[in-house]
Each structure stands twice: as C-alpha cells, then as structure tokens.
Amino acid sequence: MEGQLLILNDTFQVEERQPGRYCYRCVFPKPPPADTVLTCGEGGIFGPVVGVMGVLMATAALKMLIRGKSSSSLLSDSTFGFPPKQPAMLLYSAVSEPMFRNVRIKGRRDNCPSCSTGATITRESLMNGTMDYAAFCGLKEPIRTLEDHERMRPLEYRRMIKRLTPQQRKNIVILDVRPRTEYDLGHIEDSINWPIQDIAKSSRNEAASSENPSPNPHPPPQQSIDWDKIDVPPNARCAFMICRRGNDSQLAATMLKRRRADFDYIVEIRGGLEAWRRDVDPTFPDY
User: pLDDT digits over 179-202, tens only?
Assistant: First the structure.
C-alpha cells in the first residue's frame, strides 16, 4: 500500500559534491536482515500503487531530461519542483491522509562505501565477481541456520550423484527453491522447482489443519553423515536444497525440517548455483 520516490545519483548535478549526487546506500546505510526481506510474491502487490509510482517515476524522469537540456532560467530546479539544496524523498501511502508527503534526507555521506571518494564497493569489483555478496548486502556474515553436516558443497554433491546406482537415485530429490522465472533461466538436471514462498505457504497450511497447529520449532537433529565418504543410506528419503546463493535454501531446509518427516535427510547445497557455476559447471547461466 506504500511507495517511495528518490532521485539517486543525479547526473545532471554537474559538481560531484552537490546534494543530488547521492546513492541508495547513502540514504539507507544499514540494510535489514536478509531473512526478513519479503519478495513480491510473499508480501503481495497492490496494483494501483504500482501504477501511481510508475507515473511519478516517469514524470520525474521527464523533468530531469527537460531540465538537463535547457539553460533557460524558466526551466530551473525551482520551476520543476527540485529543491536545489536539500535532498528529499517522496512518500506515498494509499491508506493515509494526506496520501503524499515529503521527508528531508541527509544526502550524500562522506564515508559511503558505494559512492564516496574512498568507496570499497566499485563497479570493477561487481563486474569481475570479486565482491563478496554478504559484504555487499551489509551482512556481517551469510545466513547460517543449518549445521555443517546438513550442508554440502556442490562438488561433493556431484561426486556423490555419480557414485549412486539408479535404485539409490530414486530416493533422492533436489529441490530448487528459486522463483519459477529464475528456474526457467537454468537449473540442475533432474531438479524440481519448489519456490520457497510455496514451501512456507504449505507449511502454514499444514500447521493450520493439524490437530497440533504449532510446528515443532526445535526439530530433533538428523543423524550426522559424512556425505563425501558415505553413500545415501538404504531406503532413506533425501532432499537436497539449492537456490541462487545459498540463503533461501537454508531457510527452506529449516521449514521442511519442522514438518512431519517428509524426508529422512535434508541437506543444503552450500553457496547455491553461484558456487555450482564456479566449481562444477562454468557454462551455467550467470544472471
């Protein structure tokens, strides 16, 4: 029901230190915990709000283009509603009165890791893959909800699969918990797409229909197995979880562990498909 409008890195502000040249990280230097961020599928989208924000964005873009191509005083910042000295953010709420309001923001931060003169997050580091994703998102460390024996590196998974007999493979399923659109871009052979939001919804529905509606918040630990040395236990139902970078797959694995023993073993593939591309299959799509 809400939207925000910011003009970031305003390239028409010629001088680098003018208030318009600030980035998203200047305004929001501390991101929320990764496991609290909802996707559009989880949080929902209210169509009219998207339409309103789209029109506002198009209007702001046109004003910037007109202002940037004209030297006339009639097309100054004040004429088109751009405060030249104080950056601001437009807030829109479909359920508030008034629906629109402006809030002032500090603008550019001298110590911003993304756009200051001493920036540590650079275009080069993002393009060549040397940037640590956890650090880029402002996380002190990646999500970790599973024990070491509940996680497996991509190369270990590949070696294990090659050792298995066709009968053993029948008891194994690899669950790709990315959204369907990402799954369609590329996926591991024989994997099944089960988006994490669907797993969460299924878990909630099961809990609501159960005589004991509260899922076990502390499921008993599964047996520790050295997957690099021991094959899949006979008749054991095993689920291997994977996502893009290894965060959602851990959360999804934790959800499945709280259910009524869908699987005997639930293992997350560490580092996700980015690690798979790096360590196993360099031809896997990078998006």
Answer: 998 999 999 988 999 998 888 887
**242 in helix, strand or coil?**
strand
Dist. CA 83–CA 96, nearest whole Å: 24
State pTM to two decimals.
0.55
Burial of 264 (0-12, 13-18, 19+ CB in 10 A): middle
Count how many residues are written for the chain: 287
d(CA 80, CA 83): 9
- CA atoms 223, 226, 230, 236: torsion sign: positive
Burial-class residue 165 by CB neighbours within 10 Å (0-12, 13-18, 19+).
Answer: exposed
| Catalytic annotation, residues | 40, 243
Beta carbons of 142 and 55 less than 8 angstroms apart: no
- The answer to whether 255 and 266 are in contact (CB under 8 A) is no
Q: What SS3 class is residue 197?
A: helix
pLDDT above 90 coverage of the chain, percent: 23
- Distance, CA of 199 to CA of 205 (rounded, Å): 10
Contacts of 252 (CB under 8 A, 6+ apart): 175, 177, 194, 196, 199, 241, 243
Cite the beta strand spans of the chain per DSSP E. Answer: 2-5, 88-93, 100-104, 151-152, 172-176, 192-193, 238-242, 265-269
Strand pairing report for 151-152 and 265-269: parallel
